[in-house]
Amino acid sequence: FAAICSRFDKSDIVARENFTDIEGYWAKEEIERAAILGWVRGYTDGSFRPRNYITRAEAMTMINRVLHRVPESPEDLLPDMVTWPDNKLTDWYYLAVQEATNSHIPERKVNGYESWFALTDNRDWSIYQS
Asked: What is the pTM of this model?
């Protein structure tokens, strides 16, 4: 998934990230590019774990980062947003899940993060199910 996302970037950025476990991996350059762009960060032990299955939280986080849809802190969200019992404020993916599952109008902060200005009606995605 990191390889797919990295292909959206057309800049001349040179990847120089060093994860401990991607040497010789087929997507090494794409993973490094995604890391330099800030779209992936890997694990705290310095690994990327390219052979692991991607989780929903990891996918949401990466997509949000690619789209520059990232709140900086819970204070950037709105109190009447949809919340989920399995998405706790202390979870590393809390902001990513809230961002991906609440329709809202953001305001861009000076530092590049977003703050939510207003919630909008959530779409009824069930109309697209067969």
From this structure: 0.85
